[in-house]
## 1
Amino acid sequence: MPEAYIVEAVRTAGGRRGGRLAGVHPVDLAAKSLDAVMERSGLDAQAVDDVVMGCVSQGGEQAMQVGRNAVLASKHLGEGVPAVTIDRQCGSSQQAIQFAAQAVMSGTQDVVIASGVESMSRVPMGSTAMFHMKEGLGNYKSPGLEEKYPGIQWSQFMGAEMIARKHGFSKDDLDRFALRSHEKAIAATKSGAFENEIVGVDIATPEGEECHTVDEGIRFDATLDGIAGVKLLSPEGKITAATSSQICDGSSAVLVVSEQALKDHGLTPLARIHNLTVTAGDPVIMLEEPLFATDRALRRAGMKIGDIDLYEVNEAFAPVPLAWLKHTGADPEKLNVNGGAIALGHPLGASGTKLMATLVHALKARGKKYGLQTMCEGGGVANVTIIEAL
């Protein structure tokens, strides 16, 4: 079977909801990452067979096929490049990578850009996405679901609380994990670890135009006492805003190509895609599926967790990566080595390609070989992608 390779992987620095990226239209924000992979690869638009873009909140200014509109807004693509927008909840752009890889591995396409965008600043309060993220309560009902799951409130927040209880994590465990996320993100930012993956976005500020290149959500003054003092989201629970991913604006993109495209265009690969897995399980606890998806991915790849050098496990809520570590027996020192969504932000539809950009560049910086990325997703679904750095 033909191989699929990653040639470029970029992301914008995250912007808080209502923050530094709030004034950038999501179409233009997405186009920024698309243009970056084109500029860095030196490809002509005619070489691109498709663009697959993840976006969860496909309404308002992210409606009307935001992927296609981003292609049209791009400086380096244009009318002749097709695009599609997909929604697999928080794993949307990780699924975009997998769709791109499958297209290349099937031999039907040679050059595909997997990408994602989410402008959470434009997602209305009270919408499904914001309601779940902020309040932790689901009001999505259907007769079919009610028959199978009577009285269930579909809530990622409640799923996170269920994971914390099931796996025996205390509030202090969650607070300490959140602090460590900020500490790693601070160290990565100060050391320049993100420089090769971040594409700057020009923004208007009261002081004049600036280029946004630093993740806005990082708390450079974070302390354990400060994190521990944040109000509980539920009086009987353990989760706080400080131990949850930050609502975030951002975009990201990964260029996936065939071996033939490497030869035809003189491209140098960063990584080879080694395994693609997606599984589904309990939709009520919802966020636990990365544990079992990882088991399947490793089994199908003929690998053990100790064979993997770095892991990116999305920090939707602190209990998720903690439960993943406990279940897999993975080394905590290899997990989210540059910080995760608790510090860096979670731009929903863009997080899959965002994490891949971080993983690819972290492997390269450390001279390591294998990386594994996984995301929990609404409805009890999870993606796992294993890559081999080249």
## 2
Amino acid sequence: MDLNKGVSKVGSAIITVTVFLFALFLIINIPMGYYFVCLILPIGFIMMTAGLQNECESDRKVAANIGLLLAAVYSTFIMLVYFTQLTTVNNEQLNEQATNLLEFGKFGLIFNFDLLGYGVMALSTFFTGLSMKPKNKKDKWLKALMMIHGLFYFSCTFMPITGMFAKMSSNGDGIGGRLALVAWCVYFLPIGILSFLHFGSRKN
């Protein structure tokens, strides 16, 4: 068995399952559920990205390496964000100032770190998609979806600077944010599926 292919395929499966569960927990509003799956998603993302980086041709290695490095940066941010929610926020008695900074639903510092992380993830998918040379229709779709996903970098990075999410917090509006995340899940789920099919059909 090709271990490179196997690890990459498992990573794609992790992405597919965790993104689906993320959407499900968002819809039924179980924060601890989607916090937990978001702690697992980055592991699958690194496994998938490393697989695509490993198989890309030599004239695309720079783009692929950038994509893999950015995947590691994304994973660091996101795992810190959701580990904080599952541990410090969930288990400790926080004062008001700490709650405003650390509680995800307050749209404060930790929420901004989350958006920055997903902005970096978008850049990672862009460069990883750029490194691909599709050989079939499924891979063409995968490349296109990954590169278009790169546009999320701008909204994830610049929207928090406007203070939009702080205003949402003061208005007590959390439904709109959850719906936006569900829409992202609908977009990203095919990337997990197509990458799973990609590694499944790849010849050793």
## 3
Amino acid sequence: MNISVAKVRAAGEAYENLFSPYRLGDLELKNRMVLAPMTRSRALEGNVPNPLAETYYAQRASAGLIITEATQVSPQGVGYIRTPGIHSDAQIAGWKKITDAVHKAGGKIFLQLWHVGRISHPDFHGGELPVAPSAINPAIEVYTAKGPAKTVTPRALETSEIPGVVEQFRKGAENAKAAGFDGVEIHGANGYLLDQFTRDGTNKRTDAYGGSVENRARFPLEVTDAVVGVWGKERVGYRMSPNSLFNSMSDSDPVTTFSYLAEQLGKRGIGYLHAVDPLSDGANRISPLLRGIFKGTYIVNGGFDADSAEDALERKEADLVAFGVPFLANPDLPVRYRKKARLNVPDQNTFYQGEEKGYTDYPALV
């Protein structure tokens, strides 16, 4: 059933589902609200997490689960300025302070493992080309230390190189464990490397990693298996965006493509599947179909508010709901939703880069 139009709740009606506890594997979540991963571009030199992130994430520890901003598993995976990594000792140490702060505040936090693939620029790689499944230029603009730059045609990964990229994710997962996280989410959405392999608009390979949907899903599933080998299946999530055109993405048959991937992830028994499938897409949403295929914990994301989230949970179309911008501007979003209080207005001018302003200075209810 389509949940694009949620029923309007009376002023005194409680959000019983949204604020009920949930068991995610062996983790007890205090509510069904998830802080969605959001790039904020505030990392320091060396892609080390900013100490301000200790405050930022701890402020939002009232979420049932926090998923961090996308975090590179290697230097090869970098495509944006001031985004954090999880491949150096300094980065691990920086994240450890953040996980300690979140745990002290009573929260649970997963790290999102990321490789941008072709959404990058040679300026990030000492002049070397970014890598991708196929040599197809996304023809977009990226932001480097020198300012905006047009993307270039990436280099297609050799078949022999792919195990090495899988190892980057495995090592990132291992480093996340050392940094004190409660689990990890694999970033397979929004047109980045795993998504590029999955969809036939960006994957034109003729080897074992291209062509059929089984071949195109091979690399994402190998990454998943490697990460599960570090964390165990219940502490691993996977994010996908089956309908997204972001970063020049396309697929000739997204229902078949993502149904297969969801089915295979389900067979592996991973902790959750996280679908970015905006309510605004209406009848074109694939998420309700995937919910029926993936039998484990299911997270939806994309334009939800308290009413539509409660409706999705009530209809059993999701187990958890992820909130992005509302949580960005309202560190105490669960309290505000419970009290039906007025929300802070987000300042889009401070979404990316900068320091405290628009990051840690949004007020909580007094």
